Amino acid sequence: MNGKTEVVRLLLVDTPETKHPAKPVQPFGLEASNFAKATLTRKQVGIEIDISERDNYGRLLAYLWIGDKMFNEMLLEKALARVAYIYPPNTKYVDQFRSIQEKAQKQALGIWSLENYSSEEGFETDGQTAEGPSNESKTPGTGSCKIKGNISSSGEKIYHVSGSQHYDITKAEEMFCTEEEAEAAGYRASKR
């Protein structure tokens, strides 16, 4: 884009994992990945930005267009993704996406063909969801969510991941299962 390679995060959709370092390949993950490669490789695409242009990782937040068809919608129509990561103000198509998802759910297509696999919490794989354990506790010091959220004396919200310099001495005021979850709650990553 403008002579620069960009990493894009598709807005409002989540597909099953295929490359997560701590999780196995999830059902329909390879199908979603293969569909994306077949549809997008060496194709000219259109990028539609909602309100916020980038996430905290510098990724371009976008709705991706192939001609007159939106790729985010195509994933939902083929039941290879679920509606997720609904963070205002980037919600332009959320109602439209939910309607598409409901049709796929009623027809028990793709991710919706496996009982209790996909839900608002993520993709269920042996007691784990794509966004963290299904029985997680967000009470500080309990459960299996390991990212510590702390508010500094100056009021700044900072999260610490296991292995970071101050993780062991940080008193958690909130616990998170993913960095994205911490950032959505207004925390930033520790610099050390």
TrEMBL record:
- UniProt region (Disordered), positions on chain: 122-146
Keyword hit for Repeat: no
Say yes or no: keyword Hydrolase present. yes
Know the name of this protein? Nuclease
- GO function term, MF aspect, one: endonuclease activity
**Which Pfam families does this entry report, sorted A to Z?**
SNase
Keywords from the named record: Endonuclease, Hydrolase, Nuclease
Instruction: Locate the compositionally biased regions of type Polar residues.
Output: 126-142
The UniProt entry, under PROSITE patterns, shows: TNASE_3
**Source species:** Peribacillus saganii
> Which residue ranges does the record assign to the TNase-like domain?
1-114
